[in-house]
Amino acid sequence: MAEITKSYESRDVEKKWYAAWQAAGCFAGKVDPQAQAYSIAIPPPNVTGVLTMGHVLNNTIQDILIRRARLEGKSALWLPGTDHAGIATQTVVERQLRKDKKTRHDFGREKFVEKVWEWREEKGGIILEQLRRLGASCDWNRTQFTMDEHYSKAVLEVFVKLFERGHIYRGKRMVNWCPASQTALSDEEVIMKPVNGTIYRVRYELTERPGEFIEVKTTRPETIPGDVAIAVHPDDPRYTALIGKTVWRPLNRAAIPIIADAAVDKEFGSGALKITPAHDKVDCEVGARHKLPIIDVLNADGTLNAFAGAELAGLDRFAGRKKAAELLKESGALVAEEAYANNVGYSERADVPIEPRLTWQWWLRYPRVEEAKAAVRDRHIKFYPERWSKVYLHWLENIQDWCISRQLWWGHRIPVWYRKGLDKETLVETDLRDPQKIHISLAGPADPENWVQEDDVLDTWASSWLWPFATLGWPDAEKMRASGYDYFYPTSTLVTGPDIIFFWVARMIMAGLEFTHPGEPLEKRIPFKNVYFTGIIRDQQGRKMSKSLGNSPDPLDLINSYGADGLRFGIISIAPQGQDIRFQEDRIEGGKNFCNKLWNASRFRQMSGEMADNSSIAVIVARLDGAKFDADDHAILDRLFAVTREVDRCFAEFEFSAAVQALYGFFWNDFCDWYVEVSKSKLQSPDTKPNCLAIQDLVLRQTLLLLHPFIPFITEELWSLLGYGAAGSFLMRDARIEDASHWVMAIGARGVLLDQTQAATVENVKVFVSQARALKADHQLASRRDVRFFVTTTDAAWTILEASLGKIIRMAGAVEILRKVSVDGAPAVVTPLGTLYLDLASTVDAGAEKVRLAKELEQLAKHIAGTEARLGNEAFVSKAPAAVLEGARKQLADQRAKRDELTRLLKALG
RNA sequence: GGACCUUUAGCUCAGUUGGUUAGAGCGUUUCGUUGACAUCGAAAAGGUCACUGGUUCGAGUCCAGUAAGGUCCA
Question: CB < 7 Å to strand B — which of 712-741 in chain A?
């Protein structure tokens, strides 16, 4: 067997095992009727994406779940893929074209889409390669892309079906228009941002009474040429007399009416509102109520058009705003400019202010809204943390129709054809149902020469909402059979960020309910049973990590410095369930250090004695010798089973950081700092050595199993180096994790019964050793190994000490520890196992020693007072549970005994 | 305006149903390379659990309110 080197070098190990796992097909998700299915569909990263810390956290958690499921004997599938990300990808390619001074229009639709595919072949999906570095055990043979032929068919079929079922309609409505990418956006893609801008007070002159004005406030003077009325509240006495009169529009001068509408806020500004139906949602509604014309003064790209008037036409909207203000000033219409803070909607992708714009779009009335609510409310789908279900339900309560069309070229082109020569502007709802005018199908019309296809594509989310089942072959029966749709759907767990709860999670639930397993119960149609929401990773200042801020470390750099396992362990250890995470690189370093600790403890085992057959639990257990068990042996196995149970609990409740912390504490403190140290005595005696090594083998084996989901590479390597697996087998694929009760039974069958009482004595021995060390340190002897201690104690306590004396002497750095009836004048410390004296009477500074003891006595007195007060309280004694009461009494007795001993020591010093 | 989250050691955070003297990592101080590991070991210092009230024999934990910071929705 290969020798374990002095330090763990992650790089080669990671490369070696990842290649080996892949070559052996360890990641393949297979239908196995004998085993329970466990499946996860990856949240498909954008095809343009590169790995961020958010991805690291998210995908590490998924890998943890998948690997744990494998160890539990489940048949696990982690399905990977990427999202075509309409706007993002189109923007990337357009930016590239711009370098050659070209636009997509220079190529035309077909050629441009070809270019995007070329880009994707060449540069897309880098992130999937990066996930491999992280150790992600995805079934790469199943990698999917939302624009794959099969997937596209699913998307278009869903469109056709939803249209047939009456959920889809075409309508001219106010949409969120992004002038940068020149497409409509859904409400979810608009981010409200507070903006410090200017509000303009503008006066409109009454046509019939020159010199009299009505004043309005607006943040958008450039849209004044689009004003078609001034509205006032019908109950506003200031304006009652003016309703029905007209005013002069101050830009692109024309007479417009003063109308009354209850939507006007009397308290805002002067109480009068300019009505610009083309550029504001409320105005549009007011305009419709009053049958006012619509004057659109903006082009699709956000520049002003001819309707804005000669002076403004051609200007960008922001330049136009300035110019409009100047023109108003010149004409005397501008009363004042005031600083003004308001919320402005920005395009999520392009980060420019959106324009409300009246356009024809395709809309979806969501299906299965009530069922989607019930699924989460009734816990068929469980959210972790649970509180996000409230956010989810609130959104569904107030759900609005979804604008699913996008004016892009990269995406799923909507499968709608219009009869040639038809005026799309005049189509009404009934025309959509007229096959002479509109053709809607997957295959397209039989006589394509007579038809023109819809230019728009679908919103990217209108493809990704099918992800959990379209990736399993839906709706193609043959593909569904081949990919195990019936076996793996519903998927087990979705791991994602709460920021896409509306974009994606809610929509997937509705899609799953609508399209999968028709007619069957809800539990079979939901797309996943659990949803785990990760926190957001922030920098030290608490800001979101983002490319533009440059505050996000490159995960690949971190992998190079700390290893993939170190990164995984570190990130999980700082990611409590549902809380945002403040990134600290030193925690990643801590992950690396832990790996090194694990490595070296294994190395110690290898150096301590011949490796015996470790290939199964049975053969290791067979080497245990119950007769040779001492308190430490009982204690370490007791702790091992406790941590096994704790990790079980953590997985059941999705508490990964708690699991990692429990394992860290167990392995570092209980095993390395104590058991390995006491082993050094036990290993010197041929009598205790074999049993001690067998226990180490058991502990290491179980620790590797428990840790594997978190740190897969190093555990696989050590599993192999310590001989736990048969040749050609893998921890990740072939090993099975045993629960604590299985262990208790296994060692019980060997005649070893865990003795809790003995195990408990170890805690006192630890305190004893610790206090002995502290006593040395107090007297500047910490580094000496030749100190003599005396102890005065009871027979019972001495029995415990005597049983471990060799180990204690070694651990405390003593030459000997002698029991005495009484000791005078030596520095002492009161431990749970008796009073411990340092044999240095001659050199003791009695004064300092008295100060030290007095301080301790003082603190103890406070505790005693507190305990006495509690026990003296009649209410406490009569109402507290017996166990608590008994505990308090025992505590008081111990505290008093210690006080008496300290008092005696103090007196002895004079 | 509505909803939710956070506030515990110098820093970042744990703290499960209320019950001994509130924990961890990092940082700090002192000591240490005795053959697993200096990516380490030992010892130590460090907290009015944001504030105010309430419930309770007992509150970091439950309830109400206040303040500060943050997120989402409108």
Answer: none
Cis upstream peptide for A475 (omega within 30°): yes
Query: Which two structure tokens, joined as six digits, stand for A222?
Result: 């450039």
Backbone angles phi, psi at A804, to 5 degrees: -115, 15
Q: What is the mean pLDDT of chain A?
A: 88
Interface residues 94-123 of A with strand B (CB < 7 Å): none
Query: Which protein residue has its CA closest to C1' of B69?
Result: A542
Sign of CA dihedral A726, A727, A732, A734: negative
Q: For strand B, is any atom closer than 7 Å to the CB of A605?
A: no
Checking each nucleotide's C1' against the CA of A592, the nearest proves to be B39
For residue A282, give every residue at least 6 positions away whose Cβ sits within 8 Å of its Cβ, in sequence order, or none.
Answer: A263
Per-residue pLDDT tens over the stretch A625-638:
999 999 999 999 99
A593 touches strand B (CB under 7 A): yes
Reduced to 3 states, what is the DSSP secondary structure of residue A907?
Answer: helix
Specify the amino acid at residue A435.
Answer: P
Least Cα distance to A41 among A465, A392, A391, A368 occurs for A465
A676 touches strand B (CB under 7 A): yes
A813: Cα within 13 Å, side-chain hemisphere: 13
Q: Are A370 and A410 in contact (CB under 8 A)?
A: no
E strand residue ranges, A25-65: 37-41
Q: What is the pLDDT of residue A744?
A: 82
Nucleotide nearest A562 (Cα, C1'): B39
Mean pLDDT value across residues A327-342: 81
Query: Count of CB atoms within 10 A of residue A335's CB?
Result: 17
pLDDT at A908 over 80: no
> pLDDT tens digits, residue range A789-834?
999 999 999 999 999 998 999 899 888 899 999 887 788 888 889 9
Please tell me whether any atom of strand B lies within 7 Å of the Cβ of A879.
yes
Alpha helices in A407-466 (DSSP H): 429-432, 461-464
Q: Provide ipTM, 2 decimals.
A: 0.95
Mean pLDDT, range A70-99, rounded to an integer: 90
Side chain identity at residue A511, one-letter code: A
Helix/strand/coil for A456: coil
Q: Provide the CB-side half-sphere exposure for A646 (13 A, CA).
A: 19
Does residue A351 carry a pLDDT above 90? no
Q: Which residue is nearest to nucleotide B19 (CA to C1')?
A: A884
Render the burial of A602-623: b for 16+ CB within 10 Å, e for the rest. Answer: bbbbbebeeeeebeebeebbeb
> Is the CB of A521 less than 7 A from some atom of nucleic acid strand B?
no
Q: Residue A97 pLDDT more than 90? A: no
Does residue A387 carry a pLDDT above 90? no
